[in-house]
Amino acid sequence: MIIQAFLRWAETAGAADRAKAARALAKAYFRLRPDDPQKQAALHAMIHLLDDPSSAVRFALSESLAEEPSAPRAVVLALAEDQPDIACPVITFSPVLTDMDLVDIAGRGSSMTRGLIATRPELGRGVAAAIAEIGDTAEAVILLENDSADLSRYVLKRLAERHARSCEVRNLLLDREDLPAEARDVLVREISRALAGSLLVQATLSAPRIAYLTEEAATLATLRLVGNALSDEIPLLVQTMREDGRLTSAFLMHALCSGRIEFFAAAMTDLSGLDDRRVRSIMATGRKHAIRALYESCGLSREISEVFVEATMLWREKLREVQGSGEGIFDALIERYPRTVDTYTTINELLDIVESLQRQEYRDMARAYAEQTAYAA
């Protein structure tokens, strides 16, 4: 009888009165016992309000049900699919909506709807992944600004891959302490491309010079990234670089000469297909022929592999020294492979590239030291 009376009243009542009635109806629903017939009648009345022509009435209902864990699921789901301003309260706060519900809503909804989902407190990992996969840049920013969202390494990497051109997204990602190395690598490469495309840079330098400098800068940045990466991040970083064709002999040689042994060993493991312990054992204690066989199984030519073997033996010698750190390998390698101006060889080309990187890295280290000294003073 209550539902019939309510329906008759709703036909003539104004929108403001219907909105008040919607709030009162929701409160009454939560106060009634589950076995009370009036509770079912109240549910039917709320379902009827879902078709109310006034958005103010539907918003009042959405706001009243938003934070209630016992809100009727059918009504909450319908409100979540309504226009964004009405769906906002339930999408943002309703505990009735599951992660699967939110993923479905994100897939069917508009950019504004996904933005609302991205603001949700304690946003689940699966929902965040869905938004990272299909959301636009604005949604990515909202997601990254949600400090309570559970963002996995995969989500952070996908955000970097899809939105690295956005300065705001890059800054938000780089500010995160949990940003995985492979995502940071994506951002480094994008920054290099952005610098190469700068009108100021193009007006100042020639195209070949720009290509050389940006490639060198990207390589050095990647080397620093490699040196700071966590142990469990390195295999993924190696895989990404292999797929991108960036595991060049020059890069690997520089990693070995500069003491990035964790990365170098992981690269040898990935390229050779051997067990990680086996690779490390060969590098640490194996004879020269075993080391050469390992490196050649990774695709290095006989000529180049001999230089890598020599560098590995020098690394061992440095580590056996008192308080040895593995530094100075490159200088010792140059002494063992003297170069002449009029002779072109693959080894000379390799060592030239590595020497260039080494020289630039030393300059960067000197600048950092000078800055720290000036700051301390």
Automatic annotation (TrEMBL):
<dbReference type="Pfam" id="PF10098">
    <property type="entry name" value="DUF2336"/>
</dbReference>
<protein>
    <submittedName>
        <fullName>Uncharacterized protein (DUF2336 family)</fullName>
    </submittedName>
</protein>
<dbReference type="InterPro" id="IPR019285">
    <property type="entry name" value="DUF2336"/>
</dbReference>
<dbReference type="InterPro" id="IPR014598">
    <property type="entry name" value="UCP035865"/>
</dbReference>
